[in-house]
Amino acid sequence: xxxxxxxxxxxxxxxxxxxxxxxxxxxxxxxxxxxxxxxxxxxxxxxxxxxxxxxxxxxxxxxxxxxxxxxxxxxxxxxxxxxxxxxxxxxxxxxxxxxxxxxxxxxxxxxxxxxxxxxxxxxxxxxxxxxxxxxxxxxxxxxxxxxxxxxxxxxxxxxxxxxxxxxxxxxxxxxxxxxxxxxxxxxxxxxxxxxxxxxxxxxxxxxxxxxxxxxxxxxxxxxxxxxxxxxxxxxxxxxxxxxxxxxxxxxxxxxxxxxxxxxxxxxxxxxxxxxxxxxxxxxxxxxxxxxxxxxxxxxxxxxxxxxxxxxxxxxxxxxxxxxxxxxxxxxxxxxxxxxxxxxxxxxxxxxxxxxxxxxxxxxxxxxxxxxxxxxxxxxxxxxxxxxxxxxxxxxxxxxxxxxx
Length: 404
Hints:
This protein is of the alpha/beta class. The chain has helices at residues 12-22, 47-51, 65-70, 131-140, 154-165, 186-198, 245-249, 288-302, 372-381, 389-392, 396-403; strands at residues 3-8, 29-35, 74-77, 81-85, 90-93, 98-100, 103-106, 110-112, 125-127, 146-150, 169-173, 202-204, 209-213, 220-223, 228-230, 233-236, 240-242, 258-260, 271-273, 278-280, 315-320, 323-329, 338-344, 349-356, 359-366.
């Protein structure tokens, strides 16, 4: 008899876990996936393309309804899990249904952080995290609409891009001195800023938001230095926090995220967690690739294989506001490291490689990111690159040809 396995969450991590498990041990489990959003799992990274009218919701779906059905997976979406009884091994859903499990996987993802600014409760102040947020922004935005996006990380840039493409006049406000400071060095960030401004977005860095003003709805964002930005919409895109409330209420140990070991086991036997909701070895990951690595490891483990999750090398390989950017590892460098640089402003291309003791430990690419995954592989393997160091900056084709 198949063992009942429930996954709470129907996002990217859950979909990848279902795919990996289906390829290895689906017959061993009666798998049920519970999702709060009223739709099939989708690629959250592409939400800005939906806002910009470059893609539809159907385009960004990860799996069709037939895919889930053909594999015998019970899919309940639009019906949130309300509580988990870890002792009775049951999950209670919002419609009153109670489901029993032998094993349970939390894949509850994260929630957007909303700044506690005065005026943050006004109509027109929203976050940018899911399809409901996109629908709200579509209803408010359009030609001539004024919008302010607070946050110059990936989410903020994507929101600004989508709003601008929809016809809104957009101002991007960022507290730090450069855009995407966690993924890019100063030079790459400066190039990105120019590219975003070329789209017609006003970019203000080193700008602290103080309050939001308006009567019934938002009318203005006021900065700490007194500058006032008239606006019809304010979008919070200042980061995410792991969704741990359900797990914490069920008695699982949590800190910033649900605490898991190298087997992705939570503190209660038979319960696991993957994706943005977890904390592993003191780290929370807010990127897709670590979630996919965790999904793969857990699927292998539940299929009976002895593998473990050792953590992830952080890497970003995305198109931001129409520009390809990539970063991985220790791209800022530190004492004892060496840097190899290549810059061609005419082609809007910039590359920076960071080496220590003959090994690549970090990389930043702007514009031309074709070799990003190859650099990431070298970083992860701690491969010695001395034999082709002279060609390393020119990419895999040159470096491997010389090495051969």
